[in-house]
Design a protein that fits this description.
The chain is mainly beta. Residues 1-41, 610-846, 1092-1097 and 1103-1115 have low confidence and may be disordered.
């Protein structure tokens, strides 16, 4: 028969010894408390067994732990797993000749009852026949070599001749002669060492053994790792030696330290080779190595172990390591990592390290508690771990040890790729359920549908619909298509074309987004404009026009109610009132979603029987220029109006045979009082009162008019007199009053143009002439065209004149609420012409509204004879629109009269305005200032039209909006129309009043909100930065990691609107010094690196972010300064 391959056994032994060394070192390093009386459950392998000083069988483990087994033997055999139950057993003999075994749990059994009770014998254990089961060899009571296998009957060993072998003691089983076969080593009857391979008995010829107390011999052991075992022994000179198969002995000690008792091989020192364990002459357990080194075997407390000398010491053979097979690492689903393997033995200790191979970082360690076991011989083990993110992972088996500490792990390793699916959103639609016109309003229902692919582990499908007044809705799966409905909330929705964004998220935090088609939302009611009030005669057809009505989409329906029980529909209508009276006409404007607004207009209908008669006498004949006198049966009004300084004479200067003096006084730059007096052959007094901002004179024949001014004005009124040189049907009282801001509206206008207005003075005989003037001026010349209109009498309803004298005012004001254009002269300007529009007078006549444009560094528009409630549109010339910043202005005044507008483009926002980019999340394209001489209360609406270069909007034409500066903050106004053609984007928006405006498009606002030093491992520092986009569109930000102010790494991060991203930087800091980390301008933290003298490892001292505290250095400095101040003070004394 042949013994198992010796080299395989040797390699297995080396691995076991290495494990023992590791466990021993761990035990000593930890300084754990040790129970010196029991070692049940110890994870350190056993080294040897012996009788303690009280005669009790005891096992000692590699970490110094001892275990008392509770029996008192005569002879002790090697410790080994004899019955393959996973536990170690120790054979021993008793004083009554029984061969028994005891295991580590204290259980005993009898193997044979014919054993020798002498102490001068040994027990051997080994698998001599190679059947995988060890046998116990002993000396029978009659001196024969006995053999017994647990569970079988005892037998005796026979020699090659078939006779039983006589023996003084068995020694053990090993490949003693190096031929690859297992040899049974024993002592012959003369104590000569012999060995038997089952076919031949060989003798070493050496019997030099000590046997004073017992027999100084032990089982064969391979001490030097050459694959051949030698027999340890105590020689007759009390030294330890190793006997080879040829009988030669290698002595390990000198000076005879050993007692003549049993010896054994065992790895006590924890190195790669076993030592020889023996009983010293002082009955202490000792060890010796090949190089002659010796020492004591100490327990866990460091105390040398004392033994009973005669039985000596026997080896403890650790059980073979469990055999590990079929190790596999897989990804069964999701982010689950499964580790599975088979073990030949049941395991008490398992550990698997899960690492990230790219960073070699351990992310988890699994133990036996994380594994399930099934079956036996082999036992199948499975364990799982759920990864936190996708990536490649490795799982390495680090420990697979049985209850005796035998570890079969050999670094088995497997890798797995985790790649969880990402959902994909497509085919997103948004449709109105009840409306086919594509426009929805408050209460309308919308249906959202989307297709989601890769929907495994899908967590939610959500539609964000804040523009429709709904935060979000969850879509439900309907046969592969996800669907949901939402109802427009008009109180929260925003007018305009909007889409919903679908976000699909699975349980792995993978997200995909897609945007739906758009639907136009209209939650802005229309603004009805029924037009100005009218006074007409009964039976006159009255026109009605709702063109001034506006809506953010379109006014779909115009409904008129004329106040007399009749009605009509349409943008325009006509109606005839047959009876005199006051009627309220109502216009109801309806938009596409049914929202309404109403406006009223008062129609005053007079009796058509009123008759006006005018009688004119023949003019008086004079030798000088004639005088024309107008006499009427009804009052007659002559009115002259100019938009620039002019002088107007309402009655021709009269020169007669009697001396006449005519004086004309005009004041233009400051509010003044002007009095004009005419002297004729008969005493006649004419008083003219004039109040101007831009001097204008209106002369009215017999009419009494009240004049109100915004600046102090002196009014002189003469008593009525009768003019004798003229022939009239009745005496006439003449009072002249000048009104300037609101041109008087008259019927049947008769325009008269004065091309060269001048003032003429004719001197005759002196006549008393009262004159009142602040700064009399003889001549006034106008630089722009002037129109003079003469009409029939009318009533002036308002005559408040704002001051239009002075500079144009500052366009950089941070706060604007409509403002007043302070006018002024645009010196050097160019009149670019103007547009004329027609408005209706109170009695149905047509009055031309004139506009003129003056271009300097800004664009100034002068509007003359505007009608209350009627929009005035001005197109800025193409060559001036860039300077003005606008291409068209539409203003609706609330009163009759003239006014001016000034527009110019600004280089930047006013200094005191908040940042439009940071506050609104938009990017400004243009700033424009628009001012008016009308205050905000006198303007019912303003519409601006602006042009911008499409390239400046970077493809964001659909996100354009207009913002108005109000009290230092920006208010957003929706654009009514966005047209892009030929590289130009035209935007129109209705705003409440003039002011400072910004044309802007939605933009991304990406910034670093936080940065921190997330981790420091050795020289590696990990810095994490949080980046947030508070803007309206997706944006990309460039990040720079700086160390002590120097950029060392860069990264670009793209962030969707309203979301955050985390960016991580890794940096090595190998040198000493202070390191301050920042991402862009955001501090992440700092720390100092120093080196402790005598070490090579830097010491990192963290320096926290400033928290407002005072350092010790600060207080030290203060103390030094205080001490110095005291010394100075003392010297000064």
């Amino acid at each position: 028969m042949h013994a198992p391959n010796a080299s395989r056994r040797g390699a297995r032994s080396l691995r076991a010894l290495a494990v023992v060394a590791l466990l021993v070192a761990t035990a000593f390093a930890s300084g754990a408390a040790v129970d010196t009386t029991t070692a049940a459950g110890s994870t350190s392998p056993p080294v040897a067994v012996y009788e303690d000083d009280s005669g009790t069988l005891t096992a000692v483990y590699g970490n110094g732990t001892t275990q008392s087994l509770g029996v008192s033997p005569t002879v002790v055999g090697p410790m080994r797993n004899l019955d393959d139950d996973g536990a170690l057993e120790i054979p021993y003999t008793t004083s009554n000749g029984e061969l028994r075994v005891v295991d580590t749990a204290g259980d005993t059994a009898t193997l044979a009852s014919d054993a020798s009770s002498s102490v001068k014998t040994r027990l051997g254990v080994g698998d001599w026949d190679g059947d995988g089961t060890p046998s116990v060899f002993y000396t029978t009571s009659n001196g024969k070599l006995g053999r017994v296998t647990p569970g079988e009957s005892a037998t005796v060993v026979t020699g090659p001749d078939g006779k039983t072998l006589a023996t003084n003691s068995p020694v053990g089983v090993a490949d003693f002669d190096g031929d690859g076969d297992a040899d049974l080593v024993y002592l012959g009857s003369s104590s000569t060492v012999k060995y038997y391979d089952g076919q031949t008995v060989e003798s070493t010829g050496n019997s030099n053994l000590g046997s004073n107390n017992g027999i100084g011999i032990g089982p064969p052991v391979d001490v030097d790792g050459d694959g051949t075992a030698r027999v340890p022994l105590a020689t007759g000179s009390n030294n330890i030696g190793l006997m080879a198969a040829d009988g030669t002995v290698t002595t390990l000690t000198s000076n005879g330290p050993a007692a003549k008792a049993g010896v054994a091989g065992g790895n006590w020192t924890g190195d790669s080779a076993p030592e020889v364990l023996f009983v010293g002459t002082n009955e202490r357990l000792r060890w010796a190595t090949l190089d002659g080194e010796t020492g004591t075997v100490d327990d866990a407390s460091g105390t040398p172990i004392t033994v009973t000398g005669a039985p000596g010491v026997s080896p403890a053979t650790p059980p073979p390591e469990p055999r590990i097979s079929n190790y596999a690492v897989t990804n069964p689903d999701g982010r689950t990592i499964q580790m599975a393997f088979d073990s030949s033995d049941s395991l008490a200790n398992v550990s698997v390290a899960v690492t990230d191979p790219e960073t070699d970082t351990t992310v988890a360690t699994l133990t036996e508690r994380d594994f399930t076991a099934s079956g036996s011989a082999p036992t199948h083990y499975e364990g799982t771990y759920t990864a936190a993110s996708d990536g490649t992972y490795a799982a390495t088996l680090q420990t697979a040890a049985d209850a005796d500490g035998a570890d079969g792990a050999d670094g088995e390793r497997g890798t797995v790729e985790i790649a969880t699916p990402t959902p994909t959103v497509s085919n997103v639609t948004l449709t109105a359920v009840n409306d086919d016109d594509g426009i929805v309003g408050d209460g309308d229902e919308l249906r959202v549908t989307a297709t989601v692919a890769n929907e495994s582990a899908l967590d939610s499908v959500v539609a964000t619909a804040s523009s429709f007044g709904v935060d979000s809705i969850t879509l439900d799966d309907a046969s592969g298509e996800y669907r949901g409905t939402l109802v427009v909330d008009g109180s929260k929705a925003t007018s305009g074309s909007h889409a919903v964004t679908i976000r699909a998220t699975n349980e792995y935090d993978h997200t995909d987004r897609a945007t739906s088609t758009t639907v136009r939302v209209d939650v802005t009611p229309p603004r009805a404009d029924a037009g100005p009030n009218r006074t007409v005669e009964a039976g006159t057809s009255v026109g009605f026009d709702g063109d001034g009505s506006t809506d953010n989409t379109n006014v779909e329906t115009y409904r008129w109610s004329f106040g007399d029980g009749t009605s009509a529909t349409g943008r325009t209508a006509t109606h005839t009132y047959e009876n005199a009276g006051t009627y309220t006409a109502t216009l109801t404007a309806v938009d596409a979603v049914g929202q309404t607004d109403t406006d009223t207009r008062t129609i005053t209908v007079t009796d058509s029987s009123t008759t006006t008669t005018t009688t004119t006498t023949e003019p008086t004949t004079t030798t000088e220029p004639t005088t024309t006198t107008t006499t009427t049966t009804e009052p007659t009004t002559t009115s002259t109006t100019t938009t620039e300084p002019t002088t107007t004479t309402t009655e021709p200067t009269t020169t007669t045979t009697e001396p006449t003096t005519t004086t004309t006084t005009s004041t233009t730059t400051e509010p003044t009082t002007t009095t004009t007096t005419s002297t004729t052959t008969e005493p006649t007094t004419t008083t003219t009162t004039s109040t101007t901002t831009e001097p204008t004179t209106t002369t009215t024949e017999p009419t009494t008019t009240t004049s109100t001014t915004t600046e102090p004005t002196t009014t002189a009124t003469a008593e009525p007199t009768t003019t004798t040189p003229s022939t009239t049907t009745e005496s006439t009282t003449t009072t002249t009053t000048t009104l300037t801001t609101d041109p008087t509206t008259t019927a049947e206008p008769t325009p008269t143009t004065i091309t060269e207005p001048t003032a003429t003075t004719t001197t005759a005989e002196p006549t008393a002439t009262p004159t009142t003037a602040s700064e009399p001026t003889t001549s006034t010349t106008t630089t722009e065209s002037t129109t003079t209109t003469t009409a029939e009498p009318t009533t002036t309803t308002e005559s408040t004149t704002p001051d239009e004298t002075g500079s144009d005012g500052s366009d950089s004001s941070g706060t604007d609420s409509g403002g007043t254009d302070s006018g002024g002269t645009d010196s050097g300007g160019t009149d670019s012409g103007g547009a004329r529009s027609t408005s209706e007078t109170a009695d149905g006549g047509a009055e031309d509204v004139e506009t003129s444009v003056v271009v300097t560094e800004r664009v100034r528009v002068n509007v003359t004879r505007a009608n209350a409630g009627e929009a005035v549109a001005v197109d800025v010339p193409a060559n001036a629109s860039e300077r003005a910043g606008v291409s068209r202005l539409v203003v609706t005044p609330e009163r009759n009269g003239s006014f001016s507008l000034t527009a110019r483009r600004l280089a930047d926002a006013p200094e005191d305005a908040v940042s439009l980019e940071a506050r609104a999340g938009v990017e400004p394209v243009r700033y424009v200032s628009v001012r008016s001489s009308l205050d905000a209360a006198n303007v019912s609406g303003t519409t601006l039209t602006l042009d911008a270069n499409a390239s400046a909007l970077d493809g964001r034409q659909g996100n354009v909006a207009l913002y108005r500066l109000e009290n230092g903050s920006w208010s957003r106004y929706a654009t009514e129309r966005v047209v892009a053609e030929n590289g130009t984007v035209t935007v129109r928006s209705r705003v409440p009043a003039t002011g400072v405006f910004a044309l802007a498009s939605r933009a991304a606002v990406v910034s670093v909100t936080d940065a921190t030093v997330a981790d420091r491992t050795g020289d590696e520092v990990l810095v994490a930065a949080t980046v947030r986009n508070t803007g309206r569109v997706m944006g990309t930000r460039s990040l720079a990691l700086t160390v002590n102010g120097t950029a060392v790494a860069r990264a670009n991060v793209t962030v969707p609107p309203g979301e955050t991203r985390t960016v991580r930087f890794s940096r090595d800091v190998a040198g000493t010094g202070r390191y301050a980390f920042a991402v862009n301008d955001t501090r992440a933290g700092a720390f100092s690196v120093t080196r402790t003298p005598g070490t090579a490892t830097p010491t990192q001292t963290p320096v926290r972010k400033s928290e407002g505290g005072l350092s010790a250095a600060f207080f030290g400095t203060v103390a030094i300064l205080a001490g110095g101040a005291l010394l100075v003070a003392r010297r000064l004394r």
